[in-house]
Amino acid sequence: MILRARILLPVSRPPIENGAIQISGGRIRAVGSWRELRPSAGDPVCDLGDVILLPGLINAHCHLDYTDMAGQLPPPKKFTDWIGQITAAKDGWNHSDYARSWQRGAHMLLHSGTTTVGDIEARPELLPESWDATPLRVVSFLEMTGVRAGRAPREILEETAATLSGLSHSRCSAGLSPHAPYSTPPGLLRLSAALARKKKVRLCTHLSESAEEFEMFQNASGGMFDWLQRHRRDMSDCGLGSPVKHAARHGLLGENLLAVHLNYLARGDAALLGRHRVSVVHCPRSHDYFRHAAFPRARLASAGANLCLGTDSLASQRRYGKQKPELNLFEEMRQLAASDKSISPREILRMATLQGARALGLAGRTGELSNNTAADVIAIPAGTGLSNPYDTVLAHTGPVLASLIGGRWAISPAL
């Protein structure tokens, strides 16, 4: 079919007025003006009218498992307090609770314009049934910890590797997620990095998220250091440099790594990440929830890190009045624009599309409207009175008007 719209926003090239997209076999075959792509007799045309068509959004970091914790955890004074809160909140949840929470989160993402999500999966038994229940493209990162479990790193990895090998899906895939350096012993970090390279899958970890984590690794001191020492964590890997340098020592840094948060950097960290072509996932509303220091976006971008956006989980987002927060990448884009006046709406949209696709290993396959990419397309109203379509995207609220994933309507337009 051919889709026609008032404005096409391909992201990888300038906007096109009165644009059209030719789709066949689930892929985009041509992008251009309506005059260029006017169909021959009999070709089906879907004229969406006064809309902007843009690539489906790429949410590079989420925890769908925890969607139903929305609004339950008030912002903590210390990061370690929040760890205790979410651990307590999970007590008593069963398989059905997690499955329902996962599906509710996937529904939120779909209706707010996400077509691909990188999700941390703490309950791998939900897969692949959960994949089958959503039209989203999902990269599920199988979460591993080891500090509290007290199990040998190789045993943990072998169990996760068996799960990884048993997962197969036409639309979804899996990667590895050693949770964070503070919760994962060095041996498990090294083994995870080696297996990800061998299997050619993506690797994801929470890195340098809090000031307490930074102080723990940099100086072998602070609240997190004391808290984990009381929980009998081996602290001999602390005091040797920043969390980023810790990750580098244990082989995590590489083009296949999604380093989530990266809120606190030591001298040389940004250059190290850029040299290894690491993808950095910023989660603006979660960042605001914890009241972290200003995100070092400019330093990371200048160093060559690939910057993208995620929602994180609803267990770390503010509740305003009676309204519970929802998973919504448009809200994340607006939060970034509000907190960082040096970045343009165009660059923010690139973080939520092109650069997110690169982070998830999907560069050239989704995240842009161009020839031979997957037909992952969303529609939003164009008639906002704003002259710049990138401004219109950032101003969009509410559900999208339509969503196409792999050439199939996930949300059909009301024509």
Structural overview:
The structure is a single chain. The protein contains 16 helices and 16 strands. With 415 residues, it is of the alpha/beta class. The chain folds into two domains: 98 residues, Urease, subunit C, domain 1 (Roll), CATH 2.30.40.10; 303 residues, Metal-dependent hydrolases (TIM Barrel, Alpha-Beta Barrel), CATH 3.20.20. Strands 1, 2, 3, 4, 5, 14, 15 and 16 form an eight-stranded mixed β-sheet that branches. The chain has a four-stranded parallel β-sheet with strand order 6-7-8-9. Helix 10 links the parallel strand 11 and strand 12. The chain is globular.
Secondary structure layout plus pairing:
Elements: E1 2-8, E2 16-24, E3 27-33, H1 34-37, E4 45-47, E5 51-55, E6 57-62, H2 79-90, H3 95-111, E7 114-121, H4 129-132, E8 137-144, H5 153-165, E9 173-178, H6 186-199, E10 203-207, H7 211-219, H8 223-230, H9 243-249, E11 257-261, H10 269-275, E12 279-282, H11 284-290, H12 297-303, E13 306-309, H13 329-339, H14 345-351, H15 354-359, E14 377-381, H16 389-395, E15 402-405, E16 408-411
